[in-house]
Amino acid sequence: MFAALILAIHIPIILFNVIGLAIIPIGARRGWQFVHAPLWRLVHLASWTIVALQAVLGRACFLTDWQSALEGGPNTAEPLIMRWVDGVIYWPLPIWAFGLIYLLAFSYALALLWLVPLALCE
Questions:
Q1: Does an H or E element contain 8, and which?
Q2: In a domain, 122, yes or no
Q3: How many domains are contained in the chain?
Q4: pLDDT of 102 strictly over 80
């Protein structure tokens, strides 16, 4: 039950991180003001910073670690939807590959601060 709760927390964070990378430039082109909001953008960048730092240090996301520990290992019988979601978000790649992917995504999120500036004064 707690592993499912962690997964339910993890999914929106993943969506926030990934969708944010697309929404920011799309929103800038379409004139959406919220993509310039400092709080939203800095939280997005901070989230990517945590993800990239963990991966560069050779560690899995702490939410992934917690979920895995609560599941009791790979032989635990999970509900079908949980197995499907796990298959979508947990790829069987070496940690260095995640480090590279997350570092590139973080670099892009950082570049978006320059490409789509924050609205410091309104």
A1: helix 2-30
A2: no
A3: 1
A4: yes
In a domain, 120, yes or no: no
Question: Which of 111, 93, 101 is closest to 14 using CA atoms?
Answer: 101
Inside any domain, residue 80: yes
- Specify the pTM: 0.77
Dump pLDDT digits (tens) for 4-50.
Answer: 898 889 889 999 999 999 999 999 999 999 999 999 999 999 999 99
Any domain includes 42: yes
Average pLDDT value for residue range 82-102: 74
More confident residue, 76 or 114: 114
Cα(32)–Cα(21) distance, integer angstroms: 14
CA-to-CA distance for 42 and 110, rounded, in angstroms?
10
**Residue 115 and residue 112: Cα distance in Å, rounded?**
5
